Amino acid sequence: MNSPQFTAEPSPSPSPSPSDADPYPHPVPYDVIIAGCGPTGAMLAAELRLHDVRVLVLEKETEPAPFVRIVGLHIRSLELMAMRGLLDRVLEHGRRRPAAGFFAGISKPAPEGLDSAHAYLLGIPHPVIVRLLEEHAIQLGAQVRRGCAVAGFEQDDEGVTVDLADGEQLRARYLVGCDGGRSAVRKLLGVGFPGEPSRTETLMGEMEVGVPQEEVAAKVAEIGETNKRFWLRPFGGGAYSVVVPAAGVGDRAEPPTLQDFKQQLRAIAGTDFGVHSPRWLSRFGDATRLAERYRVGRVLLAGDAAHIHPPTGGQGLNLGVQDAFNLGWKLAAQIRGWAPEALLDTYQAERRPVAEDVLDNTRAQMELHSTEPGPQALRRLLTELMDIDEVNRRLIEKIAAIDIRYDFGDGPDLLGRRLRDIDVEQGHLYGLLHRGRGLLLDRTARLTVGGWSDRVDHLADPTAVLDVPCVLLRPDGHVAWIGDDQQDLDDHLSRWFGEPAN
Question: Which residue has the higher pLDDT, 252 or 378?
Fold first, then answer.
């Protein structure tokens, strides 16, 4: 074969109206209702719409948050954006920085040769990434309703009836709680949320200072030698990003005052730097909790509704978006009727251990932030060990979520891992994944996806930069099969993509 062949079925036509196609005796206007339109909820809505699932997103807030804080998109999240054709749009609004210094704020250079075409961190305002993902979902056909809070729900064998705070009732086949650490859906579902409450709290905000920048920088450098939860950094427009330990643990529902910041700055730095004119003020704690279950019947949890942890390492938003990417195609397969038995249960089986690992590494990082002698000695030791490339690399890969390997059974090390954005003759691999379908990358040019062509695309490209004959990718980019035997491939197509079409 002289040139690659890429075969793909056209996207399915929009779902028929409930009266024409719904097998249930009562009309079900929506396939999925999502509570919460943060990054996790918006990404999940978009993923479902790629498969023509009828989606309604309910957001209790009437307007986006009035303050702007910068969040970081790590390598794996940037790869997911590239898989859906969103990366260029996101890059326009962010600022790149090296993939380094994430673990407990220990400053080490980025390892060379990280296994990604997107080996950097992208700093981006939180409201901007939320807006971009929401716009993406709406462009794909999702409905978003603001000022709508979930007050209750009941599920049965056919669907979920959702009660809104204003008394309205809605009906869907599934409900997904993406409504944050205080998730109403999780509480109403009765799922336990064990872990540790906040022991320490940190104030964070943006404000102007009344002293020269050189004076601020010198004091921050002095205190930063031992206190990693303290900084003042120029933010632009005359404002500084200010982070300072709080005096105790307060009510996170109540924002701190400028006086709180001044008091803590004086206590730690001996000066309040003349801070004034705050743009926004907030607080965060180090509570660490993990939902006992991610699914109960037709109700599921994702993002902060399923797990919370301190923000050190900047993993929270990324973990939630990656939950949505894992769940979206599986829930869509269930609704579209081709999901293999127990496919939806692999969402919890795969993502809950990932969250456990994130909670553990943030616990470790918080200990390394302590100013006590023992943690400080441990921090000095780890700082020394991170001069070893393998140690530094392992920690960066962990924070950036490119070290994840789902358990798909015995096989080569690549099995269960995500595949980087390799070169193919049609350009880049991720450019072929925009529609959220599976993909067979066939270097033998002998295989076929046969009756699965409505769910799986086929690229015959002997020149693909790959060390194995062929790989089958799930819609989330993880390698589901490696080999060159058609019967073995068919078995794995059935495992992940159900029975072939007639």
Answer: 378
